[in-house]
Design brief:
Blueprint: H1 5-16, H2 31-44, H3 47-52, E1 61-65, H4 71-78, E2 82-87, H5 90-103, E3 108-111, E4 124-130, H6 139-149, E5 150-161, H7 166-179, H8 185-192, H9 203-209, E6 215-221, H10 224-230, E7 242-248
Parallel strand pairs: 1-2, 1-4, 2-3, 4-5
Antiparallel strand pairs: 5-7, 6-7
Helix pairs in contact: 4-5, 7-8, 7-10
Length: about 250
């Protein structure tokens, strides 16, 4: 089945602009390139490492949805997981395969749609996705798919963007200046941040998205992106750009 027009636009954007590819001046898909990407991700998103639990996945079936260049995915494979990674773009899949080959690691990587995962029910112990599911047009459907493929006793570890955050406000103001007409926050993010249709969610919306899970732990993180906007004041109210969601099936 061909992707929808909206999803095709998302795919085309990330095919042309793989996430974080511009942080390195080293040749693409070389060891130096991947070292630069990993260092940049750790500097900008340091909370990602503990949240993902790369070192606590040995002998577990782990799925990453939206592997990007493959840096996080490689860490799951290095940690001893039976790792499977999917992405909407061939560029991401090719990059992840190249990195696995450089590291001498084996894992399953394929092009797939987060809203229609090609896996059986209850196939994975951990499903991880960092900053991806807010880019697919039907985020609720993608979360349903996470629930479907997760085993009882398993855990989803998902990061989504937060609507009521300093960084979201800065994107809104920037897009207002660009368009010079009244514009809501959601429309500003959809048209002015990353791939077309980018979404962000309130805490109550996140809880609704994950209502089918038995236990949901929701944490807000003040990020480097928020601090660029407000400096030390970004911590006031703890309303940062990232929702970190741990959702479990009993």
């Amino acid at each position: 089945m061909e992707p929808s027009e909206g999803k095709s636009a998302v795919r085309d954007y990330w095919e042309a602009e793989p996430c974080a590819a511009g942080v390195s001046e080293a040749p693409f898909q070389t060891p130096a390139f991947y070292r630069d990407v990993a260092a940049a991700k750790d500097r900008l998103d340091p909370e990602r490492v503990a949240f993902a639990g790369f070192d606590a996945v040995a002998d577990r079936d782990v799925l990453e949805i939206g592997i990007g260049l493959g840096v996080d995915f490689m860490r799951f494979a290095r940690g001893g997981a039976r790792a499977t990674g999917v992405d909407l773009t061939l560029a991401a899949v090719d990059s992840a395969r190249a990195l696995l080959e450089l590291e001498g690691l084996e894992a399953t990587v394929l092009v797939a749609d987060a809203e229609a995962l090609p896996f059986d029910e209850q196939q994975f112990d951990v499903v991880y996705s960092w900053g991806v599911l807010h880019h697919t047009p039907d985020t609720a459907k993608a979360v349903q798919e996470v629930h479907r493929v997760l085993r009882h006793g398993g855990e989803a570890r998902i990061m989504l963007y937060a609507l009521d955050s300093p960084f979201a406000g800065a994107v809104w103001l920037r897009q207002l200046a660009r368009e010079r007409r009244p514009l809501g926050m959601r429309a500003a993010l959809s048209r002015g941040l990353e791939s077309p249709g980018t979404q962000a969610f309130t805490s109550s919306e996140v809880k609704q998205l994950f209502a089918a899970f038995d236990e949901v732990e929701l944490t807000r993180v003040v990020t480097a992106y928020d601090r660029r906007v407000l400096g030390p004041l970004a911590r006031v109210g703890n309303r940062g750009w990232f929702h970190l969601i741990r959702a479990r099936k009993r």
